[in-house]
Design goal:
Ribonucleotide Reductase Protein R1, domain 1; two-stranded antiparallel ribbon; 62% helix; 3 domains; single chain; 8 strands; 21 helices; two-stranded antiparallel sheet
Length: 471
């Protein structure tokens, strides 16, 4: 019978149960529900609601149930002493009902005492916070894994130079390691957002009841401390109806997935026949059923494609929450499926990103060839003229005319004879040719955040040190 069945003369219809019951997805919070229930039983015992013996029986039964459920969430079932314990076969409404029904079956009326002073509203809010907090730790490790793979790729190719792009047009040459470190910066921000989320969400709703608190003198500070929270939530209405922590999780995931999608987009282009900068390993690519020659970057395309799925979960919960009055409303049950799926997809994409980065082989010769094309040294010519006393805007104009001359002659700027260059500006002398070489332009940008070999090497080693401290 449902936990609320006393008020009703008949049971729920099968169609209503299909839309109402959350056990098919909130079963992933079984461990957290049991953890919170053990803490609540201790609080009730200290408040004089349970005897020491009753509390000991409840905690023992809950611990036994948790042991029976260990490993069950991967297969949705586990073996208990007396037959099979199967979520899918259960008629219970949610994980809270499932746990309570198991207790009542084992302990009878003692099991019926556990829910004294507690509502599923503060119970689910607590379970979900515990679940999110646990996954922050695992997702943090996943993000660090991608950072490690980026740093390893940068270390393998410290000398490599690739074209840098703006508007997907070749702009200025950069070190490949500099490109890797750009994504490291993005992922470091993802880490900091996860850390910030943990600080903001680490308050305990338990003891807030349905919406107005509880009449039993439970020590909410002790409950919060026991469950690893920094403090109890300070307002019972907000405690049971707040889902900001879920929205923040979805936002952090969406932002990080956007970063992964940009990484995927870059690598898909770099892997294309038109660019030819890198090759991906067989383990993260697939072929064509028709064209034998194809080697498709499917892992990257799927990573890019899953962004829409994650973004959709964030938007869906924002729309769900925007019109809800205080306090709890059943609409809020829509918070879980999107969050659970988002955590799974984000985890998968972070792991795949690491695999792709670990598998890549850079074609350094092709990268260098492309970096030298597209008149990417035109800015060096303008800067050279500044060194000769020419105002930058005038130097920019002169360099532009030199580019036109090179286009007209079908050659690179550095291949133009000095006479052609001097016909455009008498400030240009023989010493311009070393300035136009590829390595010169790259290594001149020897400033904090720049792409010179010295700066990039220093940044790379600093990030490797930081990674060691994180690990």
């Amino acid at each position: 019978m449902a936990l609320w069945g006393g008020r009703f003369e008949s049971g729920a219809s099968s169609m209503f149960k299909q839309v109402n019951d959350s056990l098919p997805f909130d079963q992933v919070m079984a461990s957290q529900d049991i953890q919170g229930s053990i803490s609540w039983s201790r609080a009730l015992q200290k408040a004089g609601v349970l005897t020491a013996d009753e509390q000991a029986q409840l905690e023992g039964a809950l611990s036994e149930l948790k042991a029976q459920l260990e490993g069950a969430l991967s297969e949705l079932k586990a073996q208990a002493d007396a037959g099979e314990l199967d979520f899918n076969a259960s008629s219970e409404e949610d994980i809270h009902s499932f746990v309570e029904a198991a207790l009542i079956e084992k302990l009878g009326d003692i099991g019926r005492k556990l829910h004294t002073g507690r509502s599923r509203n503060d119970q689910v809010a607590t379970d979900f916070r515990l679940w999110v907090r646990e996954h922050i730790a695992s997702l943090r490790a996943d993000v660090l894994g991608v950072i490690k793979s980026l740093l390893n790729a940068a270390s393998r190719h410290q000398e490599a130079i690739i074209p840098g792009y703006t508007h997907l047009q070749r702009a200025q040459p950069i070190h490949f390691a500099h490109w890797c470190l750009a994504y490291v910066e993005m992922l470091k921000r993802d880490l900091s957002r996860l850390d910030d989320l943990k600080v903001r969400m680490n308050q305990c709703p338990l003891g807030s009841g349905a919406l107005a608190g509880t009449t039993f003198p439970v020590d909410r500070h002790a409950i919060a401390e026991e469950l690893g929270f920094d403090s109890p939530c300070l307002n019972s209405l907000d405690a049971v109806s707040d889902r900001d922590f879920v929205l923040e999780l979805l936002f952090v995931a969406s932002t990080s997935m956007m970063h992964l999608s940009r990484l995927a987009e870059d690598m898909i282009f770099y892997n294309s026949g038109e660019a030819g900068f890198l090759q991906l390993g067989d383990s993260v690519t697939s072929g064509s059923s028709l064209m034998p020659q194809k080697k498709n970057p499917d892992a990257l395309e799927l990573m890019r494609g899953k962004c829409g799925r994650v973004f959709g979960s964030l938007q869906a919960l924002l729309v769900t929450m925007k019109g809800l009055p205080l306090a709890y409303n059943k609409d809020m049950q829509e918070d879980k499926e999107g969050a659970i799926d988002t955590v799974n997809q984000w985890h998968i994409c972070l792991c795949i990103a690491s695999e792709v980065l670990d598998s890549l082989q850079l074609n350094e010769e092709r990268c260098r060839e492309a970096a030298a094309q597209g008149f990417s040294n035109a800015t060096e010519l303008a800067d050279y003229l500044v060194g000769k006393g020419v105002p930058f805007r005038t130097g920019h104009d002169i360099a532009g005319r030199v580019v036109l001359q090179a286009i007209d002659k079908g050659c690179a700027i550095e291949d133009l004879p000095l006479s052609d260059l001097q016909a455009i500006s008498d400030k240009i002398e023989d010493d311009v040719y070393p300035v136009l070489q590829l390595e010169y332009g790259v290594n001149q940008r020897n400033i904090l955040g720049g792409t010179s070999k010295e700066t990039v090497t220093k940044a790379l080693y600093q990030e490797l040190e930081n990674l060691d401290k994180q690990g």
